[in-house]
Each structure stands twice: as C-alpha cells, then as structure tokens.
Design a protein that fits this description.
heterodimer; A: about 220 residues; about 75% helix; about 0% strand; B: about 70 residues; alpha+beta; 3 helices
Amino acid sequence: MSGSTDRSWTVKVREKAVEALPPEKLLPDGQPTYVASWIYMFGVASIASLVVIIGSGSILALKGPAWWHYTGVGHFFNSIHMWAVELFFFAMVVHLWGKYWMSAWRGGRARVWMTGAITFLVAVPTALTGYVSQQNFDAQWISTQAKDGLNSVGVGAFFNVTNFGQMYSYHVLLLPIAVVVLVSAHVLLVRRHGVVPPIELEARLQAAPAVEAPAAAAAGGAG
Amino acid sequence: MIKSAVIGAVFNLNHPAHVVHWHFIKLPLANVIVIGLMLVAFAVAIALPFPGAARRAAARRQAGES
C-alpha cells in the first residue's frame, strides 16, 4: 500500500463528503416536529412516483417503443408509466406550492429550493419527449404543435421534436439522468441543511437564540 | 370489450375535447379539473393535521420539561 494516502484524491473526496454530510445527518434518527406535515408527504410521493416511472420506463425501453401498441401487457406498462407521470407532476406541484409559500429558501437553503424548482423545469421536457415518442397520431399532433412553439421562442434549431430518434434518446437517457441527478442532489441538500423551520419558529429562534436553541435541538429527536 | 363499454359509459370520449375559454385563458376541461384537484389537495395538505403529529409534539414537550 502506498504511504501517500493523505494526498490521495479518494481520501480528499471522502473527507469532504463526510464533512459536508456526516452519517448522522445523512440518515438521522428523527426529524423536527414541524416536518410532520402533508406537504412533505407530497415530496415523498413525487419520489415514489419517480421510482415507478423509472421502473415501468425501463421495461418499456427493454421491449421497444412499439411494444405497447400490439400487446395487452405492453399497454398495461405504458398506462402505469403515464399515470405515474401524472402523479409525479401532481405531487411535485403541490409540494412546490407549499415550499414556495413557506419561503423554503430561507437560512442558506437557496440550493435546496433551486434544485427542486429546476427538477420541475427539467421534468417538463422529459414528459414532452415521452408524449412525442408514443408513435401514434397523438404524438404527431403534439410534436407538430411543439415544433411551432419551440420555433416561436427561437430554440427550434437545437431540438427537432419531429425527429423520433432524437426525442426517444432524450426521453430514455439524457433527461431522466438529469431528473434523477437533480432529485438526488435535492434530497442530499435537504439532509445537509435540514428542513426549513416555520417562519414563526425561525423568528423566535432569532429573537432568543440562547433560550430557544436547546428546545429546538430537543425537538429534533426521535421521530 | 365489456370493460371498454363500461368505461365508455362513464366517460364518453367520442367527441372533441371540451375547452374552457375565459378572456385570453384557454384550457382543456381535463386540465382545468386537474389544476382544481391540485388546489384542493394543497388546501387540504395545509389544513389537515398530520396523523400523530400532535401526540409526538406533546410527547417531546413533556420530555423537554422533565
């Protein structure tokens, strides 16, 4: 074994990672009482939907884009995939509204908020490329309408939504990777910075940090 | 065949989509319904207490006092 492990990049990366996100923060014993809210359930529901989307999408990718047109099982998985997308957007939008009205970017949590908001923005073209990859009249209609829309905002030279190969590649590889990376970053940043406290509690903590801080720490016990 | 006939009896999709047109806003009725459901879910998520939240908060307060 080399004696220069202190200069190894793996050691540096590990130390940085543990410093940023120690195990007790990554997998905590519990959460503060204010996390017991339905708004967070919608965040978790988004992730659960994403898992179903990736699972059903992987099966559809294995069998090819035309499979769902001529088999009942294919149609079933296509429906699972589509309804999981509907639930994903539904839950994500409710979670996003909740966090917006809570000003969830408070207390140095700008990156937490931005990764969540950008996930929504990236999920939109991920869904669009799925709709134009259906290989039916619906896909033709959507792609020609989207082409006009993209041309009207000046980005039509970069994306050809009537090019099935390009759209399918975007849909099954590039955009899902972006969504998964963003969601992972979002969850890790939530773990690092903690869930944003209610505005009222934060004001109380700022007013009397010496008195309230131990109580708030106690509130973060077993959940 | 029977299943599709039953579903067809509930939702008649054999017509052009209904569209809600209000001033410059033009949305398919299905989208309006989904947006409405999201608003309802949001309101309910804010208003409804999470199961067990009050009990856990009380237990923690008690643990903090003792």
